[in-house]
Description:
There is one protein chain. Helix content is 41%, strand content 0%. By secondary structure, it is mostly helical. The longest helix is centred in the middle third of the chain and has 26 residues, at 28-53. The chain starts with 27 loop residues before the first helix and ends with a helix.
Amino acid sequence: MALVAVQPSNPNENDKGGQGEDFGKSSPVGLVLLIVFFIAVFFLVKSMNKHIKGLPASFDEPEPAKEAPAAADKKD
Length: 76
């Protein structure tokens, strides 16, 4: 069984559904924060690309070099 809590509506309020005059408006602080986040993401991506370019093409260990057969012939 589920219990649901419902706030009773105030009959004295206008019929705006609980949304006041400033509902949905953002402040200049929000714009500044959004711009700061975009700048931070830009520099993070730039740094990540720099680090990725420094990685090797493959992390597989190279096979050890085999001795050339010509080196064995020179001993004769």
